Each structure stands twice: as C-alpha cells, then as structure tokens.
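Incident review: delayed structure delivery

Summary: a single-chain prediction request sat in the queue longer than the usual turnaround. Root cause was a stuck worker, restarted by the on-call engineer. No data loss occurred. The affected request and its eventual output are reproduced below so the record is complete for anyone auditing the incident later.

Affected input:
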Amino acid sequence: MSLPGKKVEINGVNYHYYDEGQGDRTALLVHGMPDTSSIWKELAAMLVKQGYRVVAPDLLGFGESDKPQDVDRYSGELLVNDTLAIIEHLGLSNIDVVGHDWGSFIVWEMVLGRPELFRKHVALSVGHPGAMFGDMSIESVQENWYMYMNCQTHAGELYAYNDFKFLRESFLPSHPGLDEVCDRLKDTEAMNSMLNWDRANQVLSFYLAHSMGEMNYDNCQIPTMGIWSKGDVYLSEKWVTVSKDFMDAEWRYESVEGSHWMMLDNSEVVCRLILDWFE
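Output delivered after worker restart:
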C-alpha cells in the first residue's frame, strides 16, 4: 500500500506521490528499501496537522511508481535527478526534508548538491556519504552484507522461495510490515526493481571512487539531525555519529529504540523528534 496521491511523469517514468496540507511550510519525506510512501503515514499526518504541506513520493521501482527493469535506470545520479525534478514540478522551496535508507542516500546527495532548496534535514539510519564510503574497514564490509547479497544472481529467487522463508527469517525479520512487503514482492518486476537499486549502485564502486578521489563530498551546509535506532542490523551507528565531522551547520544526534524501521515501530518518539527539529 502507498499513501493516496497523484501521478506525474518525470524523466520518462511515472512517479506516484502523496501531497497533502495547505501550510506555508513544506516537508519532503523520502523512503527507502523495501518500502513505499506508506511508512510515513504517522509522520505525514502529524506534519499536516501542524500546518505543513507534506510531499512523499513512491521511489522508482516501489509502490505505485513505475518499475523499469533496466538496471541502469536506477543509477544514483538518475534517481537524485528524478527527485529534484519532482521538487521542481511541484514548485517546492525552503524544504524540511527527511530521508531513510536509500531515501536518505538520495536526500544527502540533494542537500549537499542543492542546499539552496532546503531549510532543515533529518537523516534516518544513514550518515554523510563521506563518512560511509570513507570507511573501508572489515566492520564496514560486514555492515554492508545485504548490499552485496542483493547483487547475487539468484537473490530474488531465494527471497521468494517457499513463501519468502529466507527473506522472512534472515533478510528482513525485523520489518514491522513484513507480510505487506512480501505480498508486494510476489510481483517479479517489483522484486527485480528493488534489487536493481543495489545492482546499479554497488557499494564496492563507491569505495573505489572515493579512494581514487573521484567521489568527493563537501561538508553539509544544512542543519541536520541524524537518528539511529539501536535495533538496526543494516547500518552502522558510527556512520551517523561521525557525520558531525562533515558538517558546517548545526548537527544533532539522537539514538532511539526500535528496528531499522524506527518510524514504524517507535513512531511516536521518532515523529516528535522530527517535529521538534523542524519547529
């Protein structure tokens, strides 16, 4: 399920997006893998009630947005450009923005590359890319295990086999909405689209580009709050906390209870932190 919304054609593909509220402040919410805009249901309702216009797209390959099967269409550069094009299409500016998981990667790229568009930033689970891709320790490789696994030839078949037994028990056991995720991934195009995010943006390529000086990141100029959840088995707390060294603006760090999907299983605390930061 996605949040109810509209469709817009962006760079040759159709994006579904939620757009509610009439306030003079705008919040952009960008989800990650394997989710849809629906993970923002509680936060979106709270922000609308507080007078925000809230926009939350289904990212490419997820929910009601298109699911192209070409791996190259999921390159980070194209996905960032798509999100910027949505912002331009809707005429958004002075944006308070939240990203989670792959959505946080996209948001970091936007706040670093187009800071004039944003007022405040919340990074859920994911730190500054300079902190993440500059860490080539064995611990970093271990933390990224699922990014490597998703690039394997038979990943989709394994995940779907025997009523998603492997995905339920080994890959996503802590996801609060796992039944809904599995139901969506019964569609082989949806499964392939999800995996294409990691196939098109392989973490080893990011490490290499960073090492060779081909992927340098500036410090962040937008006030940022990083939130990491203590039950996260996918992303390192260190990458979030070290992000303070990549800031030229106000930085705040919060650690909360919950799984990687903290906005679902600890929604009241996470939503209040975000609203407090924006206010």
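Verification: The radius of gyration is 17 Å.
Action items: add queue-age alerting; document worker restart procedure.
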